[in-house]
Amino acid sequence: MRGEKLLWEASTKVADEFYTPMPKGYKKGLTKYLVITGSVMSGVGKGMITSSLCKLFQNRGMNVEPLKLEAYLNVDAGTLNPYRHGEVFVLQDGTETDMDLGAYERFLDKNLTRENFVTSGFVYKTIIEKERRGEYLGRDVQFIPHVTGEIKSLVRALASNKKPDIIVIEIGGTVGDYENMFAIEAMRELMYEEGKENVCFLNVTYIIDPPTLGEQKSKAAQLGIRGLLSLGIQPDLIICRSHKPLSNGIAEKISINSNVPIDRVIGLEDIKRIYELPLLLRRRGTDRKILESLGIEKKFNPKDKELAEWTLKNTPPKDAPITRIAIVGKYVNVKDAYISILKALEHCEGPLKTKISVSFIDAVALENGKIKSSALNEYAGVIVPGGFGKRGIEGKIMAAKYCLENQKPYLGLCLGFQVAAIAFARSTCGLKDANSTEFEPNCRHPVITLLPDQQSVESFGASMRLGSQEVELIKGTFAYKIHGKSCLIKRRFRHRYEFNPEYIEKFAEKGLVFSGKDPKKPLMQLLELPKHPFFMASQYHPEFTSRPLKPDPLFLHFVKKAMVEKC
Ligand code: GLN
C-alpha cells in the first residue's frame, strides 16, 4: 500500500492561495509534459495511443515516463474486479495497477514503478493523512488548490526522481466526467505554472459514423472538445478516432470549432494490428507535431528504420498457419480480463510465424457438464490462467486433467499452477480428494495451502505475495534449458497460496519435476512433466513481463509445441 510516506517534502506558507509543493531538486523546464485526454467516449484506444507515442519518443532517443492519472477512488487497482475493469496488472515493485500500465511497459520495454500510476483514491488518502498530521498548518483544505496541488506534486515528483525528457500523462475517463475534473484542472494549472512551451495537450476524440446515415458526423466530437475548452484547456493536437479514414470535411469542421490548425487534426481509423499503430502515427507526423509544439523536435531525431523493423518483426506472414489455443477461465466474456496473456501469445506470433486464435472456454460450463472436456481436443493447447475463488475451479481442474491424460500441451499460470498440481495429485498420485485449502479448507490432501508463517496474517489482502521475486531454475530441467541456461530469473507474483512441501516427494516419485524454486524458501514456483509433450505451469505470471520481440520462454515453447499439434 502506498501513501504511508510522502514522496517528497513539501514547503508551504500559511494562508496562501497558491499551493504548489515542489519536490526537492525539481527544476522547471527540464522535463516536458504531454497531457492526453479523451472526449466523446472511452474505449477508443487512448491507452494504445499513449503507449505508441511513448514508443515514438523513445525511438527518438528520449527518456520517457508514462503516468496514468486514474479517476476512481480505489487507492490502487488491487481490489478491482476484472469483470468490471479488466485485468489487474502488477508492477515489479508490487503495485497493483490497471491494464494500461501493462500496455506502456510492453511498448516501452521498460519496468515502471508505483510513481507511474496515481488514482484519485491515492491522492485523497495522501491529503487526508497529511491533514491529520497537521501539515496544512491550520488552513482549510480545498479541492483547489490542495487536491490539484497534490496531483501536480506527484507529476513533478516523477520528473525529479526519474529525470525524463518527457512525461506522457494519460487522464483516465473522458472530458465531462465528474471523477477526473480535478486531474484536468491540475493539468491546466501545470501549464499555467510550467509555461505553454513545456506542456502540450492532445485530445483523443471519436467521430461517429451511424450505419443508418452512412457518413461521418462530427457534432459529438465538437461538443466533447468544447467541454475541454470550457475547462480552460486549448488542445494543441486532436486525434480523431473513427471506423473509416477521416474525411477532409470532418477534419475541417473539427479544426474550425476547436482552434486547432488543420494539420494538427489527425485522423486515425481502425487498424487490424496494434503493432502498426506507432508507425502509422509517425507517418502522420504525430510525434513530430507534438515535439514542435514543445519546441524540441530538432533535438531528438527519429530512427524510422528501427521502427519499421520493430513493426515487421511483430507481424506474422499473411499466410501464416493458425494455432488455436483455449483459455479456460471465469471471465470468458471480458477479453480485457486476460489481456496480458493475449499479448504474451501475440508476442510469439512474429518469432514463430503463426497466427494465434484464442477461444475462451467457460470453466463453470465445463464444471457443470454443459461443455465436455473432450471439446478441448479441438485446440492445439490449453491455458488455465490466474484467478481467485471457488467458482469454476473444478472445471479448471478438469481441463488440466484432460491435458495431462491426453498429451495436450498445457500451460498453467498462477492458479493454473495450483490447478495442475491438484489434477496431478488426483489423476497420477491417486490422491482423489486433493485440493487447495482456498476452496476446501478441511480437505484430506491439501496439496495447495497457506504455509505456517502465512497463517497468522489476518487482514484480507495482507498476505498476498506481490511483485517481482527471484526464481531459481534447476539445472538439467527443460525450464533451465529454455531460459537461456541462467539459474536465476525474476518474475512477478500475485498470490496467497503455495504448493505444500509435504507432497514434494510423492510428486517426484510419480515423475513431476519442480524446475523452479524460491532461492531461499521451500516455495515451488515452476513445474514440468518430462513424460508429457508439454505440461508446464508457473506460480508466477510470465505474461506480465513478456514483451514484443521478447516473448516469455514459457509462452514461446508452449506455442511451439502446440504448433506441432496443428489444431
Ligand atoms: N487464488 C490463488 C492464490 O491466491 C491464485 C492467485 C492467482 O492466480 N493470481 O494463491
Catalogue the ligands: glutamine
Q: Distance between termini?
A: 45 Å
- C-alpha-based Rg, rounded: 25 Å
Major β-sheet, in short?
9 strands, mixed
Fraction of residues in helices?
Answer: 25-40%
What do the pLDDT scores average to?
93
CATH architecture label of the largest domain: 3-Layer(aba) Sandwich
SS element count, helices: 18
Could you name the ranges where pLDDT drops below 50 across 5 or more consecutive residues?
1-14
Globular, elongated, flat, extended or rod-shaped: what is the shape?
globular
Q: Which strand order spans the largest sheet, edge to edge or round the barrel? A: 11-10-12-13-21-20-19-16-17
The CATH superfamily title of the largest domain: P-loop containing nucleotide triphosphate hydrolases
Q: Which structural class do you get from the secondary structure elements? A: alpha/beta
CATH class of the largest domain: Alpha Beta
Number of strands: 21
Q: What is the CATH fold-level name of the largest domain?
A: Rossmann fold
Per DSSP, what share of the residues sits in E-state strands of 2 or more residues?
A: 15-25%
| Number of separate domains | 2
Provide a short characterization of the protein structure.
Helix content is 34%, strand content 20%. The protein is α/β, with parallel strands linked by helices.
